[in-house]
Amino acid sequence: MLSELNQNPVKPLHQRIKNALIFEVGALLIITPTFLVHRGDISVFAAMVSLLILLAIAWNTLFNYLFDCYLWTNKRSRRKSKVQRCLHAGLFQLGISLISTPIFIAILDTNQWGVFSVEIIFSLLVFAYAFVTNFIYEQYLD
């Protein structure tokens, strides 16, 4: 515990970007097949995914910084309990949903139910992926 208190509570920017890039590359590998099955136009898909990835990297970096600051301020630790890990993944997903939903609505040529169903699938995939990858990252790569 003492060694953790002596550590810098805020991860350096390069470490946050590395975390975000690892996360987004993995998410891209998981999500791409899902969308390719449902969408025929690869150029629209590529544009949408590129925009979402850039926004997600920015959100990932900012959100993790803010969450770490919260943990450090309130717990004097960056380690997350299972409840905090679920809260982290859920709040991350809420933020990414607020970012991605307008993009899905603008780009996908479908009705609101179609966008809503895509967003539900996307949210479930990203929530589970965020929970697992952040745990692995913190245990082995942090």
From TrEMBL:
It comes from the Bacteria. Residues 12-68, 81-140 form the Chlorhexidine efflux transporter domain. It comes from Vibrio agarivorans. InterPro entries: BTP_bacteria. The chain crosses the membrane at residues 21-38, 44-67, 87-107, 113-137. It holds the Pfam family BTP. This is Chlorhexidine efflux transporter. Keywords: Membrane, Transmembrane, Transmembrane helix.
